[in-house]
Amino acid sequence: MVKNFKMVAKTLFGMEELLAQELRQLGASEIEIGTRNVSFEGDTGFMYKANLCCRTAIKILKPITAFNIFTEEDLYKKIYEMPWENYMDVKGTLAVNATVFSDVFTHSQYIALKTKDAIVDRFRDREGVRPDVDLDHPTLRINIHIDRNICTVSLDSSGESLHKRGYKVESTLAPINEVLAAGIIMLSGFQGQCNFLDPMCGSGTFLTEAAMIACNIPPNLNREEFGFETWPDFDVDLYEKIEDAALKKVRDFPHKIYGFDTDPVAIHKAKENIKSANLQDFIEVKQQNFFESEKENDKSLYIVFNPPYDERISLTDVENFYSSIGNTLKRGYPGTQAWMITSNMEALKFVGLRPSTKIKLFNGKLEAKLVRYEMYEGSKKASKQ
Length: 385
Prior knowledge:
alpha/beta, VC0802-like, Rossmann fold, 2 domains, seven-stranded mixed beta sheet, 31% helix, elongated
């Protein structure tokens, strides 16, 4: 019988419930929601599947041991005693990442360095040679988590952060993180049931994530590599079975996903990224000023966007810019759910519409609000406003 083991999926603030739901739908058991993480159980195949299919996970960690430590020497000794030769070859490379919540251990980089020293010293003492450190493309990524005196050692099965989907070949100023974009679309309730518009699309992240959600395409299908692929026990046949099974669940999308931007360079970049994701059949982008646009037809529409931040709008224009958003939605987009994320809380006052939903998120380190404006048809629209 295939053995289940505990894993921890890391995510962004506000995405924990979404991630738990994703894991549940994929077939995880023993799901527990934490802060910026969800723990669960599954087997090796499920670990592969979670990396491939979770839209709101940043990392999938596999804890291998936990112990009490009271001094740095405790840490060194316990790490040194672990059978690292089971997890990597001496010719391989490693990288260590640490997070600490402790009064005794306060410097995460020092903890990472101490861990690395213990591992390479064990190899040198046993085999006469030591593995190298490679922070960019190691064969083994190790995660150390210290909470007061409890140290948990995990293998990082994802490798690079899972927001790096592999389709983004071009980037604009302050692009939105792919995991945050997917989470926002999922929070909005869009699942491919109608048309979708990003009226300030930049490099096309919302559009690409929306198309993958609408077609049920695994979000990390375009990645070159996951961390687990360099592990000694990587089962390539099992991974290919998991991938094939996920691809059989891809569905057609009968509606339209489209984006505007006033910047021709952004439009070019969005087109390159969409092409890289093989989604050009589902997404249209064009150079267009949202404030001079209106809804194409009377069908239902989801609008999701991330308006430019203060460094891209001078402070004198913020009031005018945000009031133009409200006016355009009122005038041109009846029968629409409009979702917008911004970290400029003052600017929201100028939209001139009352949001029906407000959700606290973080865009990078900036606290942000995701707001929903419901634009009704006809008299209901007028009475609401």
